[in-house]
Amino acid sequence: MIHIYPASSRFEYDKGWLKGGHSFSFGEYYDPENVKFGPMRVCNDDIIAPGKGFGAHPHSDMEIVSIILSGRLRHEDSLGNVAVTGFGGVQRMSAGTGVIHTEHNPSEHEDVHILQLWFEPAERGKEPSYTTGEFDTAALDGALVPIASGQGLEGVTDLGQDMTIYLSRLEAGQAIHFKQAVGRRIFLFVIEGELDVSGAGETSRLGRRDTARITEAPELSLTGTAPVFYMLVDLP
Fold first, then answer.
1. Does residue 65 share a domain with residue 165?
2. In the Cβ-directed half-sphere of 35, how many Cα atoms lie within 13 Å?
3. How far is the C-alpha of 37 from the C-alpha of 34, rounded, in Å?
4. Fewer CB in a 10 Å sphere around the end CB: N or C, the chain?
5. pLDDT digits (tens, 9 = 90+) for 24-83
6. What is the pTM of this model?
């Protein structure tokens, strides 16, 4: 089944220094019918103004992934980690038993645009950890590129959950086929452009910032109806 959530259904916010949209209940937005999808708990589409960011705050028992779409994001945490990451980079924090961190836009002139994803861990109460990873942005053209995974993929940022996050770019008319084990879930997020999604006898069209939550469709066909940049998450 392909359930479409149009961009207009997101909770939109504009705090001046921070603007974007929540795809799931988060902070001041709470909908008991929209709390999670499998282990996926958060998909925040954030734009942070120059010189601004999130002050020190705690997390525990959550896998947190930040994908930088443009600009640069600075992370610092109570484990002693400091990192600045741009497009082509991914930040992963396994909060485990507890960690305090800050996230900040170090630029004086440029916004930073990120997707931040939270997932419940496969195992709770682990030691917290943090890492950064890189992926080849040119390889996104015409392919699904894994950028973070808990499935032991070589050279891919590790996650504490049985799942994989992919990014891809397609030209109009270009198609990709994706297959996963029966019983798993797929979350799609169109970053830019337009995408047709077909599986289990259904076809749906997603536009910019639309999402889809897909079950009982282990084989999908993904076709760009216009040039498209999108994220696919394979979930248990």
1. no
2. 3
3. 8
4. N
5. 999 999 999 999 999 999 999 999 999 999 999 999 999 999 999 999 999 999 999 999
6. 0.97
